[in-house]
Amino acid sequence: MSPQPRVLPADPSPVTDAESVLLAGHDVPLGRYTTVRRLLPQRPRRMVGAWCFVDAFGPEDVSGRPGMQVAPHPHCGLQTVTWLVEGQIVHRDSVGHDQAIRPGQLNLMTSGRGISHSEMSPADHPPTMHGLQLWIALPDSARGTAPRFEHHAELPQVALQGGRATVVVGAYAGVHSPAQVHSPLLALELGTDASAPLRLELDPAFEHGVLVLTGAATVDGLALEPGSLLYVPPGSRLLEVTSGQPARLFVIGGEPFEEPLVMWWNFVARTHEEVVQAREEWEHGDRFGVVRCDAERLPAPALPSVRLKARDRHGASLPA
Fold first, then answer.
1. What span, in angstroms and rounded, lies between the C-alpha atoms of 226 and 235?
2. What sequence ranges are listed for the domain Pirin N-terminal (predicted)?
């Protein structure tokens, strides 16, 4: 079991890798109809392994409403992971994929040097929308690759005392996800049955993040509900999860990502100049391709008046 987690006050300072902390998320509007709960990045903890962005959305009643309507927009330098608990979203991208995603299925898009996509609830969507959108920062060796898309309708599961684990990314207990990633990573959906504590063995070389999707659970002695992320530092070997009723949790992990990043809008880069070029090519070039859908593509926001700085995984800015 990891050391007793610390609950951070509002607007906390960055934390060290030696302590577990509970990070409260904040609400962010996404598109015209959706509000998400942003769990990463935050000031005290920008990344968990190469996981550099986590948005949780719902559960939201979208009956009689459009649901998610995110028009075509660009990405570079990252992979996107879409994971649904309820609902349906249709992914369309500039490589030519048109893929519906449903609960328990994995959409993994690798932007590489550049891709664009849209994420839309279909007209006949289910009444509830609930899920996660996550980003994985690509290492320098992979961020210039050609864009690609993977859809995995079935994922392996591992039976655990007190529940089960779906292996979304990486490997657990000798079971491997088919998803292709470019750094040592893990993503699991856990389901507890409340019959006994669920004991999850951890790779001590990884740092981890834990969030609740449905229900509530106590994780390493800390009450955890939807809307927050528990950060668990490297060196931890075990998580104990207890719940008075069945609950669903999501666990991310990975080796600490040491490459500094510049994150702005939908781009993960290394320098200010790379972001400027990506924005210019989205506005006026053909680097990101065209998404075939009815929605007009999103314009890029204006760049800030100051130079964008590369930051390490702790949030410290680095010399230009």
1. 25
2. 36-136
Tokens of residue 250, six digits: 């999501």
Binding site: residue ranges? Answer: 73, 75, 117, 119
Best CA proximity match to 54, nearest among 75, 21, 28: 28
Binding residues for Fe cation: 73, 75, 117, 119
87: left (phi over 0), alpha (psi -120 to 50) or beta: left
The model's confidence at residue 17, banded by pLDDT at 50, 70 and 90, is low
Pair type for strands 21-24 and 6-7: parallel
Angle at CA 311, nearest 5°, toward 309 and 313?
165
Domain coordinates of the chain in residue numbers? 18-254
In angstroms, the CA 225 to CA 236 distance is 21
pLDDT tens digits, one per residue of 252-296: 999 999 999 999 999 999 999 999 999 999 999 999 999 999 999
Could you report the per-residue pLDDT of 186-231, keeping only the tens digit for each?
999 999 998 889 999 999 999 999 999 999 999 988 999 999 999 9
Domain formed by 18-254, architecture: Sandwich (2.60)
Which CA distances in Å does 259 have to 53, 60, 236, 310?
15, 36, 23, 9
Contacts of 274 (CB under 8 A, 6+ apart): 262, 267
Of 23, 17, 59, which Cα lies nearest the Cα of 41?
Answer: 23
